[in-house]
Write a structure and sequence with these properties.
Phage tail protein beta-alpha-beta fold, 3 domains, alpha+beta, Jelly Rolls
């Protein structure tokens, strides 16, 4: 993204002329400074003053420093962050029969024919098959759905092993083929989860379900605000995640394959936040500090040892 384009976007934001997508871009970018220092912002007035100073410096073409002085962010890097978010916010309109895919470090914002909004995460595939009696989508990967209500045509999300049925609600499905667990989290409304004709659960707001595709076992959980998915904002929070799930997140963000032959590393569960505004090296350094291991890069592979 050229600097001139960046300045135009910020100017539109300050003048109140930015579109909802443009406002989202600027606000997510401003949040990236908060993520850098990982400390409380304090009073709302101080936060607003800081954000204004960031915008003023951007228009003046000056380097921006995080509020606590921990990091200098040059505008070339800022433009890259913004360009990444722009890609993730492009609105794709799907047809009643359509296949949509994403690659490494790519997210798509989709509008389905019934006005259902979908955020499709990296390395995912969504097949849309709307008929006269039901609205069916098949998911390989991860997506967040805000379903448009229609009692006459139920909305169903089908994964390799589960079917999630809804009328009008907002919920998240994580079903990557390389990860044994399928996870469902409900933000609002309710969903019914079915496995081979067996009703596993009816989940309401703040309910979650983890399903093991190898054994067919599942467990319900309560989702705290800190665990709510937010990867479409450039922040992925992993809680009690398996090594396979961690490896999938690293691949989604950076396009590298995470491996380890260390039994302790592979058996551990991980609580870590992967942020779009961090480099691979920063994320790996944090990870290795947590597990007290080292890493080496071998082409597009990273080995924890």
């Amino acid at each position: 993204m050229k600097f001139s384009r960046l300045k135009k976007l910020i100017t539109r934001y300050q003048q109140g002329k930015a579109s909802p997508a443009e406002r989202y871009i600027v606000e997510r970018w401003l949040e990236s400074f908060q993520h850098d220092d990982q400390r409380p912002w304090g009073a709302a007035e101080k936060l607003q003053n800081f954000r204004q100073s960031v915008l003023d410096r951007a228009l003046a073409g000056r380097t921006v420093q995080s509020r606590l002085g921990l990091r200098m962010v040059k505008w070339a890097a800022a433009a890259v962050v913004l360009a990444t978010i722009v890609i993730s916010l492009m609105l794709y309109r799907a047809e009643p029969s359509h296949v949509l895919t994403t690659g490494v470090n790519q997210m798509k914002r989709l509008m389905l024919p019934d006005s259902t909004l979908v955020y499709l995460n990296a390395n995912s595939r969504l097949t849309v098959d709307f008929g006269k009696r039901e609205r069916l989508v098949t998911l390989e990967g991860e997506a967040f759905f805000e379903v448009s209500p229609d009692k006459s045509k139920p909305f169903k999300v089908r994964t390799s092993d589960l079917e999630v049925g809804v009328l009008g609600t907002a919920f998240h499905v994580n079903a990557y083929p390389a990860v044994d667990d399928t996870r469902i989290m409900v933000r609002s409304g309710s969903v019914q989860v079915v496995d081979s004709g067996r009703v596993l659960a009816v989940l309401g707001a703040a309910d979650g379900l983890t399903y093991d595709r190898r054994t067919g076992e599942f467990n319900r959980t309560e989702i705290s605000s800190g665990e709510a998915p937010s990867w479409w904002k450039g922040v992925t929070v992993l809680t009690d995640a398996s090594f396979a799930m961690l490896a999938q997140r690293i691949y989604n963000q950076y396009g590298v394959i995470l491996e380890s032959t260390d039994d302790d590393v592979r058996a551990a569960t991980y609580n870590i936040t992967v942020r779009a505004n961090r480099t691979l090296e920063q994320t790996l350094s944090q990870l290795c500090a947590m597990v007290q291991k080292k890493y080496r890069k071998e082409g597009n592979r990273v080995v924890i040892y």
